[in-house]
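Thread: Newbie trying to understand structure tokens

Hi all, I'm a second-year student working on a class project, and my supervisor (Dr. K.) asked me to get a predicted structure for one chain before our next meeting. I've only ever worked with sequences, so writing a 3D structure as a token string is new to me. If someone could post the tokens and maybe explain what I'm looking at, I'd be very grateful. Here's the chain:
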Amino acid sequence: MLIRYKKSFEKIAMGLLSFMPEEKDVKKLLQTIREYENNENWQLYLWKEEDILGAIGIQFDDQSKAVIQHITVNPSHRNSGIGKQMVDAVKQQLGERYDVCSNEYTEAFVDHCGS
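---
Reply by user tm_fold:
Sure, no problem. This is what the structure looks like when written as tokens:
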């Protein structure tokens, strides 16, 4: 299930986001987390089953578009459908109000999910 990021999940979220190639640099990673914490147009969600296994970040760039900025799954849980479940959950949650789409970093994955 999707849960909204909060400060108490910072280390878990940073760990998950660090698996993304464009977020390897610690300085960039901290900047990304701060953006999710401080910018009301950026929202980070975590995927929780028994543990937190993934993260998906959304940027609302206008009145009708929600762009998937980040999507990552713990490597030991990859290829089990968690990423697709996160995309589907975001679409279900936002789909009536926003066109959910990808950016250049998430495009290949979101397209792979059948978006």
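A couple of things are worth pointing out once you decode it. The radius of gyration is 13 Å. The first strand starts at residue 2 and ends at 4. Feel free to ask follow-ups in this thread.
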